Structure prediction request, 672 residues.
Amino acid sequence: MSPEISAAASSAMSRRLFLEKLSSVGGTALVLAGMSALGFGIESAMAAPPQLSGGGGKRILILGAGVAGLTAAYELSNAGYQVVVLEARTFAGGRSQSARKGFQLKELGGELQTCTFDEGLYINHGPWRLPYHHQSVLYYTKKFGVPLEVFVNDNDHSFINFTKGSGPLASKPVRKQEVAADIRGYATEMLAKCVQQGALDQQFGAGDKEMFLAYLKREGYLEGKDMKYLGTDGRGYDENPGAGVDPGPGKASTPHSLADILHSNTWRTLGSVANFEQQRTMFQPVGGMDRIPAGFVRNLGPVIRYSAKVEKISQDPGKVEVAYVDGKGQRTTVTGDYVLCTIPLSVLRNIDIAVSDRFKKAIGGASYAPVGKIGLQMKRRFWEEDHQIYGGHIYTDDPDIGSMTVPSTGFQGQKGVVLGYYNFGGNAAKVSAMTPAQRMAFAAAAGSKVMPAYGESVENAFSVGWHRVEHNLGGWAQWSDEGRRDDYPVLTEPDGRIYLAGEHLSYLGGWQAGGVESAWQQIAKIHKRVHAA
Amino acid sequence: MSGETIVSRILSVAGAVLSAALVLPAPASAAAAPGARLFADNCAACHQPEGQGIAGAFPALAANSFVQGPAEAPLTVLLNGRGGMPTFRNDLSDEQIAGVLSYVRSAWGNKAGPVEPAAVAAARGVAQSENAAAALQAH
Prediction:
C-alpha cells in the first residue's frame, strides 16, 4: 500500500473515496482486499469453523439434523456445550439424501415410493455437487474421511438436443464440442477480419493489435493469413485417427454453418467460462451424498432424537422450551438455554414460535423453489457404450426436463442410474402432479429423443418433488431483492434466545455450504453471548 | 460448463422471447383447454385434485375466501408466485391463467365469477416478481 493511501485510510476520508483511490492504484483485487479490511465482508467463504471452547455445559436445542444442524451439534459438543438435536425424520441429513435400495419417500398427496435400485446404485436426489470453493463442506469431508470423486460437470462429447430452434441442427442431438468449436471459430474469424481491416485500431495500443490477433487465432483455431475458421480436430473427426494407413490419420470433420448453429439455439449452452457455482473441479462423495451426514453422525454422541416433530418453540428471558411429538405420538417438552432452529422457513412458518411479529413476518418473506428430480436405473450404460459419454449433462431446452445427467461413477460397469430430469418452478409443479410411474414414462420418452436406447433401458425409477416433501416444502429458499433487504437481515440476528441457521440464511442458497457456514456464524454468536454473560 | 445454469439464465433473461416459444409446441388445444385440465396439470400436485390442499403445507382452494374475492389478488399470486408457489407468468398465457382461475373460483362449491384474459393482461403490467429467475438456478 502506498504511503499516500495508508495515510488517507487513517484520516477521516470516506470509505467510498478510499476505495476509489485504492481502485485507481491497485485495481479490483486491491479494492476487494480493502473492502474486506473495512468490514464489508466480501472475503471469501469461511473455510474452517469458529474456534470455540468453554461451553460450560450450557444447553443448546438444535432443531433439524440437516447439514446445518449437524454442523452446529458437532462443533458445540466439542466446545463443551450440551446439545439436543430434534429431527423429524428417522434419519439425519435433511435434504442431503441418497436414494438406494429400500429408501422410502411419500410425498404429500402422493403414493409411497420404495427405491428398488440394484445394490450399489443410488441417486442423489437432493444436493449432488460440491464445488472446489465450498471449502466449508470440504473441511468436513476431509475431517470425517468421506472419500470424494470428481463429478463430471462438463463433458465436451455430450449432446445438446434443442428443439425450439430451426434448421438442420434443431431437434437432434448435436455434440457440444462441434457447437463450441464452430461458433467460436466463426466469431473469432469475423472479429479478426474487423481488426485486420483496421476497424478497431483505436482500441489498441502499440503492438496490442498483433497480440489480440494472436489470441483470436488461438482461441478460434483460425488458419492462414486471412485467419479463416476451417474446422479443427477438437470438434471431432468423421473417422478417428488410428493405426496403420487405415484409418491412419482418420478423416477430418466438416464444420456446421454459422447460420445452422445460430438457428438451432445450441449455442445457448455456451459461455466463456462456467458460472462460479458450477466450475470445475466439482466433486461428489463416493457412494452417495448421504455419506456426509453419516460422517457427522459417526462423530457425534447420541444427541439426536429422531422422529421428533417440533410443534412449539417458546422462550422467556431465562430459557427456551421446545415441544415435540415423537414417533409414538407422545408429546414431550425439552428446555435449554438457547435454540438454534435450522428448520426450513417453508415449514417453520407453520410452527408455533414465540418470536416478535417482525421476526415472524420475516420468516414468511422467503419463497421456496419447487424442484423435481428423477433417478432412472438403466439396465445398460448405453451412453458410454453407444455414445462415448462418460459423465456429464445432456442439454435440452425442455424446461420440464432441464438436463439429463449420466453418472460420474461406476464407469464401464453394467448398470447405472441416470438423472432423468432436474426441473424447477412451474415445470417442477407440473411434473410432480404425475404419479411416480407417469414421471418415469415421461422421463424415458424425453431421453429417447436424444439416445435411442434410453427408454427401453429403463428398469425402475425413484423421483422427488421437493415442494411436496414433508419437513422441506421446497428445494431451497429464494429471496427476492426486497426480501433480502428487509427480511433476511432480521433472521440472521436472534429473537431473544432463538437463533436460526440454514442455507436460507446465506448467499449460498440451496448449497450445503450455505447450511454449514450459516451454522458456523450463528454458533459463534451464541458462544460470544454465553461468554459475555 | 453449467448447462442448466446457462439455459436457465437464458430462459430468465430472454424470458419474453422464449416464453412465446415455450408455449408454441403445446398442442393447439392447450390454449383452449378447459380450466379443469389446466388445474390438474399445474396446480393439483400441491393443492390436490379436489382443491382440498394439505393442512400445514398447501392451502385449500375450496371454500377459500381469497380465491373468491377480488380477482386481482389471486391473479398476482399466479403471476408472481408466493411462498412455496411458483410463478406461472412465463408458463401460461393470459387465456390459460384466466381459464384456470375461473375454474378454481367456480369449482368444489366456490361461487365467484369468471376472470377475463384482459384482466390477466392488466395484472401482468404490475411489478414483476424477482423470484422467477432465482427459481431457475440449478445447484
Remarks:
- Confidence is low (pLDDT under 50) at residues 1-13, 22-44 of chain A.
- The first helix of chain A runs from residue 3 to 10.
